[in-house]
Amino acid sequence: MAELQLRGVEKTYGNGFKAVHGINLDVEEGEFMVLVGPSGCAKSTTLRMIAGLETITGGEVRIGEQVVNDLVPGRRGIAMVFQNYALYPHMKVRRNLSFGLKLKRKPKAEIETATEEVSGILEIEQLLDRLPKQLSGGQAQRVALGRALIKHPEVFLFDEPLSNLDAKLRASMRVRITDLHKRLRSEGRPATVVYVTHDQVEAMTMGDRICVMKDGHIMQVADPTTLYERPANDFVAGFIGMPEMNLVKCTLTHDGALPVLTAGSQKITVAEGLASRLSAQEGPVTLGIRPQHLQVVAADEANAFTGTVSNIEFLGHEVNLHVEVEGAQFVVVVPSAELDKKIGRGDQVGLRPLGANIHIFDAESGANVSLPAD
């Protein structure tokens, strides 16, 4: 396996549209890197440039020690798993798995051994004599994964491989793919993976690190915990986490040493722990607070926003309360056992942010100005 480096990589189409804006990314050998972002953010375009399926109009892609900008896909040492599986419909599973090795004129015995090993790892031995049309979605996905695995590539590239599966099967395949990655690593065969998805649950549960993209730019690269707890900007904060972070326009002032946030006509004092980080900040800001970090209190409680319950979503073990505070919308996650059953739509409640968990974003740049210094 090998590390992957992108240096100043750009993609500009013939009509002048610039899809990728000089991005830099390092993927370590054996790392599972996820590219995530909304539709149109250029994550698949980036993956296709790594694969050689899209030309690179600026910058450099390096796999191991080699710059691969001008190499055809077959010479880059990569294997790609697509959204539509791309299995040969007229070939049985056994031949679909082994076809790439046959093109490389590998010895018959080596091909048979590799086919048996890969089918055993993915538990598809019983499928070897079936045609693709006889496979379920999950089975076809495992065959596509096996066809990539059998090549022992430098880098594995996955382009939204689970998007065609139902929710239960997606969850199962997430576990299967990550378990396979860990198994190969433990056996001394670390697999370098770049995995594209628009599903932040896939990203958070599968990636060693995650690269969040927007409009052809990289917003942040970090491990899942860091992205969740220390988002670099309001875009990352709003994209990572379910339900998404509450982002509310406020004004930041200071009452002595303590920062004060004003939303509409309502004010709350920010926790003392954030005071030093916000001492130089004043004026329009965006308050970020996750639904899990709001406490429901009485409507007249001090240091809390007062709002009206507009909707209640019962999800079994927890409830999502939707609360309107002077035009701003908050979502609060409350364990079902802790919710006052008397609360209903139209009721007034107080929302108290749990101090150390709030984030303050600059209104103009979106940067998180409440993060502690590294």
Verbal overview:
GO terms for molecular function: ABC-type maltose transporter activity; ATP binding; ATP hydrolysis activity. Belongs to the ABC transporter superfamily. Pfam families: ABC_tran (PF00005), TOBE_2 (PF08402). Keywords: ATP-binding, Nucleotide-binding, Transport. It contains 8 helices and 20 strands. It is α+β, with helices and mostly antiparallel strands and 374 residues long. The strands form 4 sheets. The protein has a 6-stranded mixed beta sheet, sandwiched between helices. A 5-stranded antiparallel beta sheet has the order 13-12-11-14-20. It has a 5-stranded antiparallel beta sheet with strand order 15-19-16-17-18, with no helix packed on it. Helix 2 crosses helix 3 and helix 2 packs parallel to helix 4. The radius of gyration is 25 Å and the shape is elongated.
Give the SSE map.
Layout: E1 4-12, E2 18-27, E3 32-36, H1 43-51, E4 58-63, E5 66-67, E6 78-81, H2 93-103, H3 108-121, H4 137-149, E7 155-159, H5 167-186, E8 192-197, H6 200-206, E9 209-214, E10 217-222, H7 224-229, H8 234-239, E11 246-255, E12 258-263, E13 266-269, E14 283-289, E15 294-297, E16 305-314, E17 318-325, E18 328-335, E19 348-353, E20 359-362
Parallel strand pairs: 3-8, 3-9, 6-7, 7-8
Antiparallel strand pairs: 1-2, 1-4, 4-5, 9-10, 11-12, 11-14, 12-13, 14-20, 15-19, 16-17, 16-19, 17-18
